[in-house]
Amino acid sequence: MASHGDFSPELKKLREKHQHFYLTVYTSTDASVNNYVCGGGLDLGLNEQGIEEARHLAKRFQKNPLKIKKIISGPELRTIQLADLFHDELRGKMLIFREFADQLMGDLEGKVLTQNMDELNPPRGESLAGFSSRVHNGLVRVLQEKDLCLVAAHARVARKIFDWIGLEAEKIEAGVLYAIDLPVGTGNAHYRQV
């Protein structure tokens, strides 16, 4: 399966030099605990467990040699809370990228997850193609940044970022900080947990 990055002229151009950024996904909201759909249409914050886990992850970088200058978040409260906890430790400038908003799940928002739901193209929601294109545009903006960035993201957004950089077969875990390197050219990205 070809990666999205192989077909994106914008990403190819940006990969004329080595690229590096960090990515993390929040862990727990009431939606994830109660197993209901929460996309871009529900602006839930992190629950107590999610805040504590994010705080613990961010605190690991209190004496961190990383020079992360910008912390990028989607516009929903849950990613802003995650970014803010990293900001407390890293003191980077916080930016909100609307391109990294969670996929709008339309009629599925707030419904209990079932196996027969079409989460890829939810009724009256955002198509997977539109969502993917929007995340691509956000990734292009991240790679255009001159400073080292950390992206605080939704799981669906992180999944699309991985797809665009040729890591579509890799699993993304919530509550983990990933260091991502994109080599020069069109080769797949490399990543590691920090």
Note down, in words, how this protein is organized.
The protein has 6 helices and 6 strands, in the order H-E-H-H-E-H-E-H-E-H-E-E. The protein is globular. It has a single domain, classed as Rossmann fold (3-Layer(aba) Sandwich), CATH 3.40.50. It has a 6-stranded mixed sheet with strand order 3-2-4-1-5-6. It is 33% helix and 15% strand. With 194 residues, the chain is α/β, with parallel strands linked by helices. The two termini are 28 Å apart.
- Global shape: globular
Low-confidence sequence ranges: none
Name the CATH architecture.
3-Layer(aba) Sandwich
Physical arrangement of strands within the biggest beta sheet = 3-2-4-1-5-6
How far do the termini sit from each other?
A: 28 Å
The helix/strand class is alpha/beta
Overall strand count: 6
Largest sheet, in brief, is: 6 strands, mixed
What is the CATH fold-level name?
Rossmann fold
Average of the residue pLDDT scores: 87
Rg, rounded, reads 16 Å
- Domain count: the total is 1
CATH uppermost class: Alpha Beta
Helical residue percent? 25-40%
Beta-strand fraction estimate: 15-25%
The run of helices and strands is HEHHEHEHEHEE
